[in-house]
Design brief:
6 helices, Muramoyl-pentapeptide Carboxypeptidase, domain 2, 10 strands, 34% helix, 7-stranded mixed β-sheet, 227 residues, 3-stranded antiparallel β-sheet, alpha+beta
Length: 227
């Protein structure tokens, strides 16, 4: 009798759990296909990171979000710095200077960050839109700074260093000159940095160390950090 009741309780709990999961929005279900138009949820960064190795799913997600891109051939001549699932992002919610040539998963994460974090923050704190985002680079075949064995996410084009934001009204908000200030520009930078933590696996800014004084490092790697 006890075993029957115990089994019944397990079945009821499983039924309740399945019902709850089915009713949850996709961004709160870890195994659902990423929707780049959906709000950022608890599992967003994890799902976007999985796209780094799934070219069909990643490209389908970009097309659904109306991101225009051009696929690039794989380059695996150097196994430690292989360039796989690569593309050039030709049109998204904002432009980039220089253009984004990256792993598809990084492009997908940037698309979400632009729409859900950067543009709303610009309208809230700066009363305008972001026209373009300046960065210091994506691909670089090198180890993590200070390490001789662990490769940087830049070595697989799954990381980007964001330096500045050019606004529609002509202003340029750069990280070095505005980070930490009690100004509209300072609050905007804090919002886009903190918001990135829910989109990318790792977000590092000027508070992390001196090497990041002039940029935000954003990546879709295997390690999770928000600093």
């Amino acid at each position: 009798m006890r075993k029957s009741l115990g089994l019944l309780a397990v079945v009821v709990l499983l039924a309740v759990a399945v019902t709850v999961v089915v009713r949850l929005p996709p961004q709160y279900v870890p195994w659902s296909v990423p929707d780049l138009n959906a709000d950022v949820g608890f599992f967003t960064s994890l799902k976007l990171a999985r796209l780094r190795g799934d070219a069909p799913a990643c490209r389908a997600a970009l097309r659904m979000a109306q991101v225009q891109f051009r696929p690039l051939p794989d380059n695996i001549a150097n196994a430690e710095c292989a360039q796989e699932n690569m593309l050039i992002m030709e049109r998204s919610a904002t432009s980039y200077a220089p253009a984004v040539r990256a792993n598809c998963g990084l492009a997908a994460a940037l698309s979400v960050w632009e729409r859900k974090i950067v543009l709303p923050a610009a309208r809230r704190f700066l009363s305008t839109d972001v026209e373009s985002i300046g960065h210091l680079g994506i691909y670089a075949c090198r180890p993590v700074r200070g390490s001789v064995s662990r490769q940087s996410e830049h070595a697989t084009a799954t990381a980007i260093d964001i330096q500045s934001f050019r606004l529609r009204d002509g202003r340029v908000i750069d990280v070095r000159g505005n980070w930490g200030k009690d100004t509209a520009a300072g609050h905007f930078l804090r919002a886009v940095h903190d918001g990135a933590c829910g989109v990318f696996r790792t977000t590092l800014g000027p508070d992390y160390n001196a090497a990041h004084a002039n940029h935000f490092h954003l990546d879709i790697g295997f390690f999770s950090a928000c600093r």
